[in-house]
Amino acid sequence: MDYFFVALFVGMAFALVGGGLAISYLVAPNRPNKVKSQPYECGEHTVGPSWVHFNVGYYLFALLFLVFDVEAAFLYPWALVFREFGLIALFEVGIFIVILLFALVYAWKKGVLEWV
Amino acid sequence: MDITLNPADLTHTIAFYTLALTSIVAALIVVTAKRIFRAAVALAVVLICGAGFYILLNYDFIAGVQLLVYVGGIVILIVFAVMLTSSLESIEEPPSLGRKALGLFSSLAFLATAVIAFSETKFPLSSISAEQPKDVAKAVGRKLLDYGAGGYVLPFEVISLLLLASVIGAIVVARNPKRKNEGSAT
């Protein structure tokens, strides 16, 4: 029953958030007026819509992140067993990481890492 | 799946049907949501349910990869892509009848192909999962580092080449060469 606690955690997360919202809905008085219903951000009136366009630089960062995310997924099983293999495991994963370092160097050279 | 009243199997059954129902509902939201951002969030729910199915199959490692790569990576990428599009605030027009019919036809064709392929294929049972279902990640690691016969060390190294190629490809495709001269245009 390893995942019993995961299920319990998910259930409690839903109960906490849902319960808080439900109690405030039931208990709190609901008397909206024009000033109260205005959106605000840290006490300031908002300027423009909240859906702004992201800088395209984020997308390239996300692409790079995805590739190194996959790398991390492959390093996890390696990390579990590398003691059994010793130096050869280090050598094998060294090749793996060095090849991927070229990807980072390429991105660096092409200016992807520079924030505009 | 057999529905038995054995307590362990009952929780399994409940978990399976909960996940199945959640993923079907979320998948319907993905295709019917009028705002594209909501579709992206519902897609994350579908993928999380996929990880739940892997856990039910005792494939903890694959579930972790599913969460790490698909939920943590692909969905983020989709969200960024959505944030970059100009039609973020616009509400999608309902598609025409012809497009709906075409979509229904192609999805049904895909479903039929998938059902036929999965029911016709004889899947070889891996010795890894039969031996120690809880140590799948360790078994995967051993196979990846094994340089003898039946080992996968060459594919392991080739994966990094594949990832390198995908980085270069992504940068070449996504990066606009003019931007570098323009400077700080958002």
How do the helices and strands line up, and which of them pair or pack?
The complex is a heterodimer of chains A (116) and B (186).
Chain A: H1 4-27, E1 40-41, E2 44-45, H2 57-85, H3 87-109
Antiparallel strand pairs in A: 1-2
Helix pairs in contact in A: 2-3
Chain B: H1 7-32, H2 36-56, H3 60-84, H4 97-120, H5 127-131, H6 136-145, H7 153-174, H8 179-182
Helix pairs in contact in B: 1-2, 2-3
At a glance:
Chain A is mainly α.
Reading off the top of the CATH hierarchy, the class of chain A is best stated as Mainly Alpha
Overall structural class of chain B, as computed from helix and strand content, comes to mainly alpha
Helical proportion of chain A? Answer: 55-70%
Outline the biggest β-sheet of chain B: none
Order of helices and strands of chain A: HEEHH
Task: Summarize model confidence as the mean pLDDT of chain A.
Answer: 85
CATH topology-level name of chain A: Methane Monooxygenase Hydroxylase, Chain G, domain 1
How far apart are the termini of chain B?
54 Å
Q: Give the uncertain stretches of chain A in residue-range form.
A: none
Strand content of chain A: under 5%
The rounded Rg of chain B comes to: 22 Å
Task: Please compute the radius of gyration of chain A using only Cα atoms.
Answer: 25 Å
Q: Order of strands in the sheet with the most strands of chain A? A: 1-2
